[in-house]
Amino acid sequence: MRKLVLKSVSCGIALGLGLGLISSMQTAAAEWKPQKPVEFVIMAGQGGGADRLARLIQSIIEKNDFSNQPFIPINKGGGSGAEALRYLKDKAGDPHVIMATLNSLYTTPLRNPGIGVNIEEYTPIARLAEDTFVLWVNSESDIKTIDDYVAAVKKAGPEKWVMGGTGTGQEDSLVTAMLQKAYGIQMTYVPFKGGGTVAKNLVGKQLNSTVNNPSEQLGFFEAGRSRPIAAFTPERIGVFPDVPTFKEMGQDLVYFMQRSVVAPAGMPKDAQDFYVDVFRKVNESKEWKEYTSKKALNRAFLTGDDLMAYFVAEREKHRVLLKEMGEIK
Amino acid sequence: MDILAQLAGGFATSFEPLNFGLLVLGCTVGLFVGALPGLGSVNGVAILLPITFFVPPTGAIIFLAAIYYGAMFGGAISSIMLGIPGASTAVATTFDGRPMALKGDAHKALVAAAVASFVGGTIAVILFTLFAPPLAEFALKFGPAENFALMVVAFATFIGLSGDDIPKTILSILFGLILSAVGLDIISGQPRLIFFDLPGFYKGISFIVLAIGIYGIGEILWTLDSSKGKVEIAQHKVGFRLVLQAVFDLRKTWRTMGLCSLLGYFVGILPAAGATPGSLMAYGMAKSLSKNPQNYGKGEINGVVAPEAANNAASTGSMLPMLTLGIPGSPTTAILLGGMIIWGLEPGPLLFITNETFVWGLIASLYSANLVTLIINLAFIPLFIWVLRTPFAILAPIIFVLSLVGGYAPGASMHDVWLILVFGIAGYLLRKLNYPMAPAVLAIVLGPLAEKYFRQAMIISHGDVMTFVERPLSAVFVGAALVLVSMPIISALKRRRSLV
C-alpha cells in the first residue's frame, strides 16, 4: 500500500518533470532494464588476458542480444587496476556501471591502502571462470621436467635467471614467489604490462621462463615455440594431458585467477538481478562453453552472497601470501 | 611464385561483391569517424564490431580494417582544417597542416595528407606481403633494452632539430615528461603526482587531452589574440583542377614519403609502439634531415607528408604482430584481436597456415582499401574546403565545442574537459613565450613507454646501464641518438668557423 502511494507521488513528480522521466519510471516499476549504454570497466590494459575475455563477453552479449542496451568496454588498467577500483568507488549507486575483475581486485587494495577501497562495499554480480597457470620455457631450451628446471635455475643463479610476469605483487609474481619458496630457488622477476607481451618475450628469448595462463601461450605452444613444464592446478589441464601438475610431484602449488564481474556499492537490487541474469545467460551460451574448453578455463559460475564470501576468503589468502613475500606489513 | 599466387587468391576474395561493398562502406565510415575529433579508429571499430557478427569472418575483418584505414586518412582532415587532431595518430599533422590552412593552402595540405597516407599504406602493405614472417621474427629480438634505446632515438630527433631554441625544446620535453609521470607508477602501482588528491589523476594524463588543449583551445586564443578580434580568413579556392595540380606538385616530397613510410612501418611492427609514436618520430626525422628545418611548424608541406605517410605505414605494420604473435601493436588492433577471437580465428604464428584465405583476403583488401580511401578522400576535398569558408565567429565556437567533446568522449570523464581548458590556456601562454609545443606532446606519448622499458631493462641487468651498449641492436640506436643530438652542436661550430 505504502509502495503504491510512493509510486503515485513519484509519478506525480515525474509528470511535472516531463514525459521522458515518466516513461523511465514506468519501465523501472516493471522490470529493471538499463536506460542507456552500460559502462563495462576493465581493470586491466588493452590486449591482455582480462581485456580479451571482457571483449569476448561483450561480443557474446551483443551477438545473442542478452541486453537491450550495449555494453561499452572501457579500459582503466592504471596501477594494477587501482584506477578502475577507485573509479568504481566514485560511481556508488550508479546502475549503469559494472567492472570485469581479476585477482588484483584483492591484491591492489591490500598493497595500496591509499586508494581507500574496500571490496566488501561493491555489489557482487557473477564469477564466470577461474583461469589456470602453467610454468613455461622456450621450446629451444633443454628443460623438459621440473627437475631440469630447478637445476637450471640453480646453475644460472638468481641474477641470471629472468622470470617475466604481469605487474608486481600481482598474480604472476605471487605464483613465482610460491614456486621459489617450494623449491628453494631464487630468480629475477621482471614485470610487464600484459600477459601477451610476457609470452612474446619468452619466445623472443628475452626471458628464461614465465607463468602465463594457457590462453596467452596457446598460440606459441601450437606453433612449437614454447614448452609447458608443469601446471599450478589440482588436476591436469584438458588441453595439456601430458603436462604434470605440481601437486602430482608432491608440491602443494595451486593458484587460480578468478574472472568475475562486480558493480559499484549501493546498486539497486533489481539492477543487480538484471546483470546477474545477463551473465547467467553468458555462462550458458554456446560461445562461452566453446571458448572456455579451448582455452583451458574452468567454468565456475558463482553469484550473490556466495561470491562475496569467496572474495573475502580469497582476500585473506592473498593477505597471507603478500605478507610472506614482504609486499605488505 | 607462391606469394603472388596467394595474393591473387586474396584479391579474388576481396573483390567478391559482399566483401568489396563492405570495403567501400568501411572506408567511407572510417574517413568520417577519423575526421571527428575524439572519435578515432578505436571508437569506430569498437562501436561497429557487433555488426560484423552477421557476415563471414573474412568480410568482417575487411570491414573493420577498412574503417581502421579510413580513420587513418580522416584524422588528418580536422587536424588541418580546424587545428584539432582528429585522432591521436594525426597530432603531428597539426604542426604544419594547420599553418598551411591558415595561409590559404588547405587544399594542398589535405591532398598531401591523402596522398602521403596512400603511399605510406601501400609501401607498408608491400613489405607486409613480401616479408611478414621474417619481420615477425625480427620484432621478437626487441626486448626492453632495445625498446628503450629506440625511444632515446625519438627524443634525440626532437632535441637535435636545428633551427629551434635548444634550451626551450628541452624544457618543453621536460614539461611533457612531468605530465607523463602523473598517475600510478607503472611498475609498483604507487600513486604519483596526484594533484589536489583528485581521483581523475589516477589514470594519468592522456596525451590526446594535452594535444586538444594546446592545439584546439590554444589555437582559438592565439588567433583571437594575434588578430585583435579582426580575423582575416585566407581565401580558399576550390576545384578539382587545383586538387590535381596539388597531387602533381607532391612529386618533390617523394624522399620524405619513402623514408617516413619505412620508418613508420618499422615502428608499427614493434608491439611496443604503434602509429602515434611512429608519426611523431617521422616528423622529427623529416625535420632533422631537411635543408630548411626553420620552415617546419610554419606550414611546410613535408611536415604534413611525414607524419601521414608514417602513421598509415605504422597502422599496417601493427597488424603484423597482431596476426603473427597475437599481440596488438595499437589499441585498435587490440579490438580487432577481440573480434578475431569471437569469429573463431586464433591469431598467432599458425594463422598464416591454418587460415590462409582469411590472411590473404585481409592483405589484399588492404591494397584496395588504400586506393578506395584515396579516391573518396580526394573527391571530398572541395567539400571540406567549403567548410573552411565559414566566418571565424562561427567556426571558433564549433572548434571549442568539438575540442571539449573530443576530450570527453574517449574516457567519458569531466576531469579531462577541465584539463583541456587548463592546457589550452597554458599552451597559449607558452606559445606567446616562443616555446615549441611539439616536443611536449612527443614526451607525453613516449615518456611512459620509455620509463617502463628503462626500468624493465634495469631489473634484468641488475642496474647495469652498460646493457644498452652491450646489446648490439640497442647499441646501434644509442649511437644514432648521439649523432642526432650532436648535429646542432657541430653545425653551430661550423657556422662559427665560417664567420671567422
Layout: helices, strands, pairs:
The complex is a heterodimer of chains A (329) and B (500).
Chain A: H1 2-17, H2 19-30, E1 38-42, H3 49-64, E2 71-75, H4 82-90, E3 97-101, H5 104-111, E4 123-131, E5 134-138, H6 146-156, E6 162-166, H7 171-183, E7 188-192, H8 195-203, E8 209-210, H9 214-222, E9 226-231, E10 257-263, H10 269-284, H11 286-294, E11 298-303, H12 304-325
Parallel strand pairs in A: 1-2, 1-3, 6-7, 6-8
Antiparallel strand pairs in A: 3-10, 4-10, 4-11, 5-8, 5-9
Helix pairs in contact in A: 1-2, 5-12
Chain B: H1 2-14, H2 17-35, H3 41-48, H4 57-81, H5 91-102, H6 106-140, H7 144-159, H8 166-181, E1 183-184, E2 191-192, H9 207-227, H10 240-249, H11 254-269, H12 275-289, H13 301-317, H14 319-325, H15 331-342, H16 351-354, H17 356-388, H18 392-411, H19 414-432, H20 438-461, H21 467-470, H22 472-499
Keywords:
heterodimer, A: 329 residues, alpha/beta, D-Maltodextrin-Binding Protein, domain 2, 12 helices, 18% strand, globular, B: 500 residues, mainly alpha, two-stranded antiparallel ribbon
Task: Give an overview in words.
- The complex is a heterodimer of chains A (329) and B (500).
- Chain A has two domains: 32-131 and 256-325, D-Maltodextrin-Binding Protein, domain 2; 134-231, Periplasmic binding protein-like II (D-Maltodextrin-Binding Protein, domain 2).
- Chain A is 46% helix and 18% strand.
- Chain A contains twelve helices and eleven strands.
- Chain A has helices at 2-17, 19-30, 49-64, 82-90, 104-111, 146-156, 171-183, 195-203, 214-222, 269-284, 286-294, 304-325; strands spanning 38-42, 71-75, 97-101, 123-131, 134-138, 162-166, 188-192, 209-210, 226-231, 257-263, 298-303.
- The model of chain A is unreliable at 9-29 (pLDDT under 50).
- Chain B has one domain (2-499).
- Chain B is built from 22 helices and two strands.
- In chain B, strand 1 and strand 2 (191-192) form a beta hairpin.
